[in-house]
Structure formats: C-alpha cells, structure tokens
Amino acid sequence: MTQDRYAAIVVGGSSGGIEALMALLPELPPTLRAAVLIVMHMPRDPRSRLLEIFRPTCALPLREAQDKDPISPGTVYFAPPDYHLLLDQGPRVALSVDAPVHYSRPSIDVLFESAADLYGDELVAVLLSGGNEDGARGLQAVRAANGLVIVQEPSSAPVSTMPLAGMARVDADHVLPPKGIAALIAGLHRQGRL
C-alpha cells in the first residue's frame, strides 16, 4: 500500500490473541498518532480485565470504549464485554447489542467493516490468533477500501483458524509473528505514517 498516513489501527483476536497483544501493545510508541481499537473474544462477564492486564505495560492511554465516545488519536480502546464495537462519523464509538456474529459479541467483522467504511485507505487492520472465522470478512472490507492488512503468522498463533481464514479471503500485505507486527507498526510510526 502507498498510503502516506494511517489514522487508525483495528485489531481482532480470540483464543491466543491475548498472548499476541502482550507482545504488541507494550511496543506501541508513546507518540503514536493513530487510534487503536481492539476486539477480543472474551467471556460475557460484565467486567473485563483487559485494562488491568495491559495498563502497566502500555505507554498509550487505555480505555474501555463507551457509546458515543469521541475517538482520540494515540489512545487504545477495547470493546466492552458483550457489545459490538463500531465506528461512526466524528469519529466516535458506537456500541451495539445486535445478534452475535460467528457466535461472538463483540465481533471482529463488525469492527473491521465499520472501520473500513469510516477510514477507507487510512486504516490498518491486524487479525490475530483465534479459533473461528470472525475477522476474515472484515479483512475483505478493509482490502476493498485499500487499507493495510496484517495477519498473524499462523505458525506463531496458538490457534491458527482465524489467521488462516483471513489469509484464505484476502492477500495480506504482511504475515508476521506478534513481535514482527509490533516492529512493523513501530517502523511506520518512525516514517511518520502512524
């Protein structure tokens, strides 16, 4: 892709995705300008522990997304348990209790598709380890909008179903292990593109 600047990074994962985030989030530069929005398949517990897990190691501010939140550059947003996370004009967050997609709410496809609609070629999408095909259709939307598509190297994923499904649907721009994804994002930041 030849996009000079990317405005947002969307990340999705399921089984094994937390391990990938542990390699990725601590490496995000504190001066990153792009917003980062994350969907992880989690139990429908009303309280997520993701902020507690990642706040000590991530240099960027972390938030659990709230409906109608404006999306701030250089901020990491996690989808709250049992809500789809969508992006809307503003840009701002929209939460939904629509039916699960691939048995999941939040759904990676829902985030990726709404982000592709909003950001077009200014979007980076990262699909991580997971045990179903959620995210593959979303990657197609990102590819159709000329966004940058990154998939976790299946051999580095504890559960490779999700990255393999994504790679079956689109030609990824990069297929990398988590540390490689972190290095790529850091490199794009150094180039002034994130």
UniProtKB/TrEMBL annotation:
It holds the Pfam family CheB_methylest. GO terms for molecular function: protein-glutamate methylesterase activity. CDD domains: CheB. Residues 9-185 form the CheB-type methylesterase domain. The active site is at S14, H41, D134. Signal peptide: none annotated. InterPro entries: CheB_C, Sig_transdc_resp-reg_Me-estase. It catalyses: [protein]-L-glutamate 5-O-methyl ester + H2O = L-glutamyl-[protein] + methanol + H(+). Keywords: Chemotaxis, Hydrolase. It is an enzyme of class 3 (hydrolase). Its EC number is 3.1.1.61. The keyword DNA-binding does not apply. PROSITE patterns: CHEB. PANTHER family: PROTEIN-GLUTAMATE METHYLESTERASE/PROTEIN-GLUTAMINE GLUTAMINASE, PROTEIN-GLUTAMATE METHYLESTERASE_PROTEIN-GLUTAMINE GLUTAMINASE. This is protein-glutamate methylesterase. It comes from Hydrogenophaga laconesensis.
